[in-house]
Amino acid sequence: MAKRIDVSGLHVFYGDFKAVEDVSMTIEPRSVTAFIGSSGCGKSTFLRTLNRMHEVTPGARVQGKVMLDDQDVYGPDVDPVAVRREIGMVFQRPNPFPTMSIYDNVIAGAKLNNQRMPKAKADDLVERSLRGANLWEEVKDRLTRPGAGLSGGQQQRLCIARAIAVEPAVLLMDEPCSALDPISTLAIEDLIAKLKENYTIVIVTHNMQQAARVSDVTAFFNLAGTGKPGRLIEMGETNKIFTKPEKKETENYITGRFG
Amino acid sequence: MTTTTKGSATEMPGDGPPPSQKSLLTGSLPRYAAPALLAATAALAAGVLLAFGALGIAQFAVFTVIAYAVVISIASRVVENRRQATDRLVTTIVYACFGLAMVPLVSLLWTVLSEGLARLDLYFLTVSMNGVTPSMDAGGVYHAIVGTIAITGLAAVISIPIGLLTSIYLVEYGQGRLKQAITFFVDVMTGIPSIVAGLFVVALWMMIFGPGKTNGAAGAIALSVLMIPVVVRSCEEMLRLVPNELREASYALGVPKWLTVVKVVLPTAIAGITTGVMLALARVIGETAPLILTAGSSAVAINWNLFNGQMMSLPVFIYSQVRMGGAINYERAWAAALALIVVVMLLFFLARLVSRFFAPNLSR
Ligand SMILES: Nc1ncnc2c1ncn2[C@@H]1O[C@H](COP(=O)(O)OP(=O)(O)OP(=O)(O)O)[C@@H](O)[C@H]1O
Ligand SMILES: [Mg+2]
């Protein structure tokens, strides 16, 4: 199920402004890759280009190549909608659909696409996804209640359940815990550790401990200077990045020294 | 300001006590002071006006409000402090303005009710004016209700899809020049006087069908010209209120854009959209001028056919009855006005139900 992502020579632009410059990396399947780096260095921008979500932003465009296993994500005949079914995304702020119940939120991927599903199969999918997101026990008695009535942490896990219900190969998470309390954060970190068995996971985080806890590989991004594009500085095993980084810049960032 | 920490509680004139000793207490008027003062000034105003033999509701209200504003400000200034006094003065002014704004509304409703109820009965609502001479004590408004429902119904059927789709285009798809142009023309359309819309349709019908062929459909088109820009504007506002995050959430699940619009954006905004559409409908349902030009002002019989012959409507009925000038005509006009208000109220009630039905259920 999980797939490898291969990025080579990727540049991202917002209109004339170059936000990310020349990133090449390989993201291994069944692993967690963390993106760290200072604010505004293009982590979110880069992440969104992996499933072509940046195309929603007017003026955003990409140069370079992204491969999902052996398929070119930016190939001429590739449908961005199909790409997003393969590469799911969880956002910084939990965003369950306010018009839908918890149940409907989980199967939103199928429902919104007008896919008919027998009730038994839908029930099964909802339970499986909610269990997968460690939320089943908390909500199993109120599946028909609105998704917006859950706590922030529960909502975020609901969004994760919704994302895994469409059975993607890759899951992109942009600061999924930044709006959550430590307990909910822990719940989601546990969840990530569990999901890694089946998915390729990429997570953007500002929390260094979190990156150290959950990820196998860490990629450090930084700005070349104000007004300059962000670049990938260093990528490697999380252990190594946090203990013996090769670049001085990485070490400064990790230890909290700048300049 | 100096921050002395003198132990004594001496008050220096012109300078407040040092912060460390600033008292949080100020004098305050007892709670019954405001109503008591109001009652007192009202009694005073009534007494003075009586003495001059000029007691009237308007004079009484103006006198009372002014006197009360003065008295409460002075009392508050003396007992409390300056900020409180200003607060009380402004509060009085705001309430007075609110009361002033309510006067025409209440008086209008009262007049329509008291004048209209006399004639508004089942008979009046269920017969037309067919074969009734203007001064006969008979006849009713059924044909006008039929016309109003048919014409505004058709206008709604034309305007709501066009308006809603235009607003969806503007918010979800539109870019660059075309979007700017459409926005501009919608603004221009909003400003078209209703009689001009009527003239436009008359000219159009003249061109297509020849002279004297205007009918209910022409009226509906004229109303659509007025209604579409209002629908576009209000729907646009409502669609913009839908957070982008919901659209992104949907895209991230691999949902195409058009399904996202239909199944995420529209349901989220539906409550606001229905309200907006209803306001637009309420705006055109009372239009008179364009309907006189198009659907005509002399129909007396029930006519459900929008495409043949003249059609009466409630506002035009009111207009033509008032023009006739007899006492019975005035009665009919008032009763029809009341009927029109009731129809609009029913529409609003319906809209509330519809939006309640569709609205996202946010209760826990
Ligand atoms: N929609 C946009 N239009 C134009 N420029 C943008 C847009 N989104 C982001 N940028 C710019 O692109 C650069 C990278 O932004 P991005 O959001 O990717 O940073 P980030 O690394 O995710 O930061 P943070 O850690 O604060 O989330 C910034 O300079 C930002 O101003
Ligand atoms: Mg970001």
TrEMBL record, chain A:
A single GO BP: phosphate ion transmembrane transport
Superkingdom of this protein's organism: Bacteria
Pfam family, one: ABC_tran
GO MF assignments: ATP binding; ATP hydrolysis activity; phosphate transmembrane transporter activity
Signal sequence interval, chain numbering: none
SMART domains with a match to the protein in the record: AAA
One Gene Ontology cellular component: membrane
Domain ABC transporter: 5-248
SUPFAM superfamilies reported for this sequence: P-loop containing nucleoside triphosphate hydrolases (SSF52540)
Coiled coil: none
UniProt keywords, alphabetically: ATP-binding, Nucleotide-binding, Translocase, Transport
Annotated InterPro entries: AAA+_ATPase, ABC_transporter-like_ATP-bd, ABC_transporter-like_CS, P-loop_NTPase, PstB-like
Keyword Iron: no
PROSITE patterns in the cross-refs: ABC_TRANSPORTER_1, ABC_TRANSPORTER_2
NCBIfam families associated with the record: 3a0107s01c2
Listed name of the protein: Phosphate ABC transporter ATP-binding protein (PhoT family)
Record organism: Murinocardiopsis flavida
UniProtKB/TrEMBL annotation, chain B:
Stretches assigned to the ABC transmembrane type-1 domain: 145-351
GO CC annotations, alphabetized: plasma membrane
Localization per Swiss-Prot or TrEMBL: Cell membrane
Membrane topology (UniProt): Multi-pass membrane protein
Membrane-crossing segments per the record: 32-54, 60-80, 92-113, 141-170, 182-208, 214-232, 264-282, 333-354
Keyword DNA-binding in record: no
Any single biological process term in GO: phosphate ion transmembrane transport
Residues forming coiled coils: none
Assigned keywords, A-Z: Cell membrane, Membrane, Phosphate transport, Transmembrane, Transmembrane helix, Transport
GO MF term list: phosphate transmembrane transporter activity
Pfam short name (any one): BPD_transp_1
Residue ranges of the region described as Disordered: 1-20
Entries under InterPro entries matching the protein: MetI-like, MetI-like_sf, Phosphate_PstA, Phosphate_transprt_permease
Function: Part of the binding-protein-dependent transport system for phosphate; probably responsible for the translocation of the substrate across the membrane.
Family classification: Belongs to the binding-protein-dependent transport system permease family. CysTW subfamily.
Name of the protein in its database record: Phosphate transport system permease protein PstA
